[in-house]
Fold this protein.
Amino acid sequence: MLPTSPTSLDFLELNHQPNRKTDKMPAAYKAAEKAVIYKFVEITQADQKTAAKILKSHGWNVDSALNAYDLSSLINTLRFAYLSSSTAPQNSVLRSNLNTQFDALRDEPREYPDTIKIDGSMAYFQQLAVDLAGIEMLVVSELLNCPTIGEITREGFIDGWSKVGADTVSKQKTRITKIMKSLPSDHTTFTLVYKHTFPLGRADGKKALQLENATEFWRILFSSPSSPVRWSTPTTPWLDWWIAYLEAEHKKDVNKDLWDQTLKFAEECLKDEKLDWWDSENSAWPGVIDGFVERVYEKRPKDATADQEGDEMDYD
């Protein structure tokens, strides 16, 4: 079940080539400052000049700088790539129809004229025949830019459906069916859904996602038959191991950096589950992922995969 409490960045391989100006780091920066600049670049794909400027303004604190960095340009780029194939009309009639539909769906119109609250949202999702406990719920929530689970804003509703030309329940159901049919091979849409799930699942006023909720979302996102990133193989139950490790060793809320990097880590594991690509010394994975890989090596030799499917991670 989805938790009830209220897109991927590629991990850059920095091959420092002396003939490329963008790869040169000014001598004025200290070694520790260069390290956090590289980490910021790896996470955000920003250029080094931008990274240095933002980090400097936030006292070289990576977490503070990441919170301040606006990823909207990347999100808009990915969203455009997905929506550009649509020939949906974006006109006043379409938006007027959606405004009327939104008004009818509101459950507390006097107190919240521009928001559909939990009861109205759940009733609407049922009209759309959306699985409330599955990835389909997260897909629609991303499309409508829902700020939290069970809440739909007028702006998100109208903008989301107008971009795909769906101003009736019938058209909206058809669009959802089309998205879900293509999702297993659509990494762009999955990345948008994955990234949006982080703010969607956070409790009010919180910067991080509760571990309990994060693990539930990971099970949905990485286990669904519709997911293009099913984080498990016949020899290694990656997702089960990952969740078991976090619950036993991490025991903390999941911040945005760890959330984003988990998707990249899962994708890399599926490309090469022997982890020949792993290089903890020259990369900037979150420390908890470093610890998890060490535990995997203890359980399973680096040059071999697990002998038995479904082995449990041992924490004795």
User: Anything to note?
Assistant: The chain has a mean pLDDT of 82. Residues 48 and 288 are 25 Å apart (CA to CA). The longest strand covers residues 115-116. The beta strands are 115-116, 152-153.
